[in-house]
Amino acid sequence: MKFYLRRIGFYAFTLWAAISLNFLLPRLMPGNPADIMIAKMQRAGGEVSETTIRNIRMLLGGEDIPLWQQYFQYWGQMFRGDLGISVTDFPKPVSELIAEALPWTLILVGTATLISFILGVGLGAWAGWKRGTWVDHLIPATTVLQSIPYFWLALVLVFVFAVTLGWFPIFGGYDVFSFPYGPEASWAFFTDAVAHAILPAVTIVVSSVGGWLFGMRNMMVSTLAEDYVLTAEAKGLHPRRVMTTYAARNAAIPSISGFSITLGFVVAGSIVMEQVFTYPGVGKLMFQAVTMNDYALMQGLFLVITIAVLGANFFMDLVYGFVDPRARQNV
């Protein structure tokens, strides 16, 4: 029980610190969202009345409100589920923008991460079992692919398969001309969205599968030298059973731990990939929030990412404490 209480206390403090930094860091950047909105309105329609300026500052926050007061207001609004109004897409609430972008990121990045994990762990286990053979040549090939910059690989895929061959759409999450009213529950929209997601998903899989493969291969080689594996081989068990039940099952534990933490970062999306493909996910939304100094949107996105990452770590701590009693004693 003490182990779980310590873990809960640690993550509660970490969450408080992360949320406090989430509030403070955007405000250390030059400018503020109220001034940006006022400047945009002045460029669009000339002069803006003092009443309008005052209302905008009250809505978006301005220099008239002390920082400590903004801090307590932020906590109060957060507990009410009010993440503020976005400057990027005024006057939409931040929660609505995040709710629109999050499913795109979860489906695309989550699926691509799962595929890369399965491929990497499966091929890594095979490469470790067949160490010293031609299968080991997969390691340097995937390592090279992993070292290729995200944006460069994405641009190459777009040029070859979208521009030159015309097999896939060039950008976007769906065809806005075929579906002018936005996403809809139909087979036509589903197939169109899948076609738009293939190249971004391939970019993520190709860039990340090498890390899983390399780590699993090394763990497999180390596990094969353990006494229980040698004992299983000496008993005359079938090689496939030794590989799957005795070697790969134990060698995959560190990879599963890393995968669970990686899932926490899935909600952050892939900023570079989503920018290249103009994909309507969280990464693209975050880029827009930073470039527009949209405090409320940045804070909302960072809050969602922080909770997801801390939640994944907390879950794994509880699982390790349940599976391995030594973890409860050493903390």
Automatic annotation (TrEMBL):
Keyword annotations for this protein, in alphabetical order, are: Membrane, Transmembrane, Transmembrane helix, Transport
Q: Which Pfam families did the record assign?
A: BPD_transp_1
Write out the annotated subcellular location: Cell membrane; Membrane
| Parts of the chain that traverse the membrane | 7-25, 101-129, 150-174, 194-214, 251-277, 297-323
Q: How does it sit in the membrane?
A: Multi-pass membrane protein
Please give the Gene3D superfamilies that the UniProt record associates with this protein: MetI-like (1.10.3720.10)
Do you know which CDD domains this protein is assigned to?
TM_PBP2
Q: Where is the ABC transmembrane type-1 domain?
A: 102-316
Q: Which family does it belong to?
A: Belongs to the binding-protein-dependent transport system permease family.
Stated name of the protein: ABC transporter permease
